[in-house]
């Protein structure tokens, strides 16, 4: 039987991954609130053009829904990269994911509250993009190290 050794500090990776659950929960609340304000009934995923023309609330609902959907699209890759990176560098991996979450909060607020152009605000640019690049590079390097070590 094989044994998996979790590196010291890997609990930070777990905590950072849990932060994404709170991010998603907040986005779900936001989508639900804007769905109700716009009067968009389930199972309709987005407001159509007529609904958006009739109500600014419908456009906000669409933006809130898109932020949530976009976050869900990112998560499988982020989880994999964070775990791979975290096997060798858990604190850096956790910090990178935590910064990405902070950037996603700013992205969501900017996108839903204001015009769509506000989604790429200074916090998003400083946090989300560099942290995503760090996760990609770190996961790649950690994987290389694991392969080179024959693990």
TrEMBL record:
GO-annotated molecular function: glutathione peroxidase activity; glutathione transferase activity
Taxonomy, superkingdom: Eukaryota
Localization, UniProt: Membrane
Keywords, ordered alphabetically: Membrane, Transmembrane, Transmembrane helix
InterPro entries membership: MAPEG, MAPEG-like_dom_sf, Membr-assoc_MAPEG
Pfam family, one: MAPEG
Coiled-coil portions: none
UniProt protein name: Uncharacterized protein
Organism: Mycena alexandri
């Amino acid at each position: 039987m094989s044994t998996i050794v979790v590196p010291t500090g890997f609990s930070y990776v777990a905590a950072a991954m849990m932060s994404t659950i709170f991010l998603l929960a907040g986005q779900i609340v936001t989508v639900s609130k804007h769905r109700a304000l716009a009067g968009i009934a389930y199972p309709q995923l987005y407001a159509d053009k007529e609904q958006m023309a009739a109500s600014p609330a419908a456009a906000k609902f669409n933006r809130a829904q898109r932020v949530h959907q976009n976050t869900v699209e990112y998560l499988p890759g982020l989880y994999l990269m964070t775990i791979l990176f975290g096997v060798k560098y858990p604190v850096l991996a956790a910090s990178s994911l935590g910064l990405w979450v902070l950037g996603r909060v700013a992205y969501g607020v900017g996108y839903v509250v204001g015009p769509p152009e506000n989604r790429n605000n200074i916090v998003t640019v400083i946090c989300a993009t560099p942290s995503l690049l760090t996760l990609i590079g770190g996961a790649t390097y950690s994987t290389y190290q694991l392969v080179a070590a024959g693990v």
